[in-house]
Amino acid sequence: MAGSPKVTVAVTVVLAAVIIQANCSSFGPRRIRNAKVLGFDWKNCGQPEAPAVLKTLTLSPDPINIPGSLSAAASGSTLVELAAPLSLNVTLEKKVAGFWVKVPCLEELGSCHYKDACDILNQLIPPGQDCPEPLHTYGLPCHCPFKAGSYSLPQSEFYLPYMDLPYWLTNGDYRVQGDLGGGGKELGCLKLSLSIHSD
């Protein structure tokens, strides 16, 4: 099997966001010495006929410490090839005084529309370069196109380094929805929820 294409795209976009955050001085980024991610949860939110679905996703420990080690496993499938351009609409909300407030898109971070998630993958991992571990070990793709089929990432260990985050993303409850599309059709949808507590 070759990692859920949806998982690969989602994880890579999150990594891209971290890189963007580290370079956006207008957000007032600050170095996070210690942070905890608690209560991580997910669910598919696409239409019943959406071809790309995440079947399993497990992260541990809970809470996840940053910096620290993360163990992750995932599986999913797609009934169609996922090829460029793959549009990605991200909606990020933060709970403020008991209400969910949509975070606007500022310098490519927040509730943003990305014209082609494949371009983001190419910026992170230039074409021709080997996929990073553990994708390389398991023969999982990290560039478009992702062939139709089932994909799986066995339980794998990752290290989460220190990182710079914008001031508004350092504490609170968040929920994120990512809608993947191509050829004018919805290909898949994923909702995530989590809390961030940092020093």
How does this model look, in words?
With 199 residues, this protein is mainly beta. Helix content is 14%, strand content 46%. The chain is built from two helices and twelve strands, in the order αββββββββαββββ. The strands form three sheets. Strands 2, 4, 6, 7, 8, 11 and 12 form a seven-stranded antiparallel β-sheet that branches. The protein has a three-stranded antiparallel β-sheet with strand order 3-5-9, covered by helices on one side. It has a two-stranded antiparallel ribbon with strand order 1-10. Strand 6 (87-96) and strand 7 form a beta hairpin. Helix 1 packs across helix 2 (117-124). It starts with a helix and ends with a strand.
